[in-house]
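Here is an idea for our session: we take a single protein and study its fold together. Which protein we use is up to you, so please pick one and set it down. Once you have written the record down, we can walk along the chain together:
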Amino acid sequence: MLKNISFEWLVGLRYTRAGRRSGRNSFISFISLISMAGIALGVATLIIVLSVMNGFQKEVRDRMLSVLPHIEVFDASGQIPDWQATAKEVQKHSAVLGAAPYVDAQAMIINDGIMRGAILRGILPEEEPKVSIVATKVKAGHLDDLKAGAFNIILGIDLARAMHIGIGDKVTLAAAEGQITPAGTLPRLKAFTVVAVFEAGHYEFDSAMAFIHLSDAEKFFRQDAPTGIRLKVKDMLQAPQVAYELSRTLGGNLISRDWSQQNNSYFAAVKTEKIMMFIILALIILVASFNLISSLIVTVSEKQADIAILRTLGASPLSIMKIFLVQGGIVAFMGTALGVFFGTVTALNIDVIVPLIERALGIQFLAKEVYVISTVPSDLHWDDVYSIGGIALIMAFLSTIYPSLRAARVNPAEALRYE
């Protein structure tokens, strides 16, 4: 088998391994090992960090979508007179699983002199489970407690705490649009009874959102029809594409908007943060690549006599260059492979590894009293792994070019003069 391997590969492999008869060979192998470890550490760290960031993003996104719809379809006028017909039309799309009407508005919630702004959403309790899992997020009471004409309300848990409100308490809602009377414009007020409290796990919603029955919302805000309909699709990641397709088929002044557009600033910030973190952590791989350059330069300096002998035996400058390309390539490949292996294994088992570290050190990285997410999530994306591995290989291989060119330019006569 070895007969089929070129001498460049054989010599490159020998330079990579530790030598037993020469302390200098051992030193060269040691710095090659350090270079390999640096590349592996950089690759593994990048995979783990990006997986954890993906995990947090997925966790927050899922909690947001427990309250928010995948897609909203609404009219430019602010009302959809025949929402049932529109719901039937959009459900003809193969990706749409369910549709439900809603009324969206803002109001002030008043209780014992405490006033808080809130996002009010009018829903049909029997239709809402088709488009969201808000019913499973209700911590006290039931979603079905919203009865038409009863003027009941469900509050976010942080909103209820801030206003010192419990189940059965009365709160006053003040609409943004006032009521015109002979005495002037007066705020439109209505008493509602708190029948349930929900916890989505996202502070923005838990502290500023409330649900009421659809018919109560239409009466309170003086609307003749719902604001629009909310849709659930098979794959939330395909929601932008589905929303675009619906916008081309729906008639009238209907507008479709997916969940990523509703929270565009948040997801844009997360994307920018992920890109910046990728660049910062990629510098670890770049430093390891510089270390690989220095180790190969040392190898070239120590092996000048060997290079000169090979040249006198007929080896071409290209063959000498290939030897050190092989040595650097082996270090780059092994380092990247080890980094991908350990990074992937750690990312896939971070739910086991982190608790072990916490128990061993007696600490908790995410305290339940402070953070809503008390465990470190991880979501490994294989396209990230491929990108990181490919970039690491390219950076490390490029680092071998200069030392290899330097080895190819060694003058045999000069190298053997003092040997």
